[in-house]
Specification:
2 copies of one chain form a homodimer. In chain A, strands 1, 2, 3, 4, 5, 6, 7 and 8 form an 8-stranded mixed beta sheet that branches. The first copy, chain A, has helices spanning 5-21, 24-28, 50-58, and strands spanning 31-38, 47-48, 65-75, 78-87, 91-93, 96-101, 107-113, 119-121. In chain A, 25% of the residues lie in helices and 41% in strands. Chain A is of the alpha+beta class. Chain A has one domain: Nuclear Transport Factor 2, Chain: A. Chain A binds chain B through residues 2, 5, 40-43, 71, 73-82, 94-96, 98, 111, 113-115, 117-118, and chain B through 2, 5, 40-43, 71, 73-82, 94-96, 98, 111, 113-115, 117-118. Chains A, B: It holds the Pfam family SnoaL_2.
Chain lengths: 122, 122
Amino acid sequence: MSFEPDVLQGFVQRYLDTVVSGSADDVAALYAEDATLEDPVGGGEVHIGRQAIAGFYKNVSGAEITTQLLSFRAGGSEAAFVFAITVGGAMKIEPIEVMTFNADGQITSMRAFWGPQDVTQL
Amino acid sequence: MSFEPDVLQGFVQRYLDTVVSGSADDVAALYAEDATLEDPVGGGEVHIGRQAIAGFYKNVSGAEITTQLLSFRAGGSEAAFVFAITVGGAMKIEPIEVMTFNADGQITSMRAFWGPQDVTQL
């Protein structure tokens, strides 16, 4: 299974837009029922299933968020990308993320690579 | 198992330096015996084992190569990074790669996300 790069980039942009303007449940609805989320990678916690994933996004909801896609690479049914996210106008993080998608375009896994050294206080 | 970000970045820089100045066998020697390599992701071919990996690098040896690390993110025992590689002064590719490492600092998997749209003719 494989998507055209433009289609994958559309999935990623929809995700980044929903993080800005949607609820935690809206973001979780972009994920497959049995999806996994690891953010940050190496942090020791993997969230499994849409309900756990909604819980993860609830932790950041409430703050004003902006997102910007900086670099995008397609790979079959996967995408790797660099993006910037600002939280409450107070800090900016620039992770590298890897996402996998199923045939319905749902996110089946998300892994975010970043650490304290990738956070800028604004 | 986890490495400090600086250590992981050192592993990645050593890899990029060896791609420039080493032989295919030198590069393969940075990989674990049972490592896997997928380049590009979604290309349908996964090279398994150090011998197959040496074969992959032999295909690009002979050309003059330059590499430059553009962005780096650490994640436990993994690294995600953006880099530029030029081949024979004729083309430049900017992949996003994800590498995993074992306790000895050997690469256990490498996955490179890029496609024709990420290649620039020089």
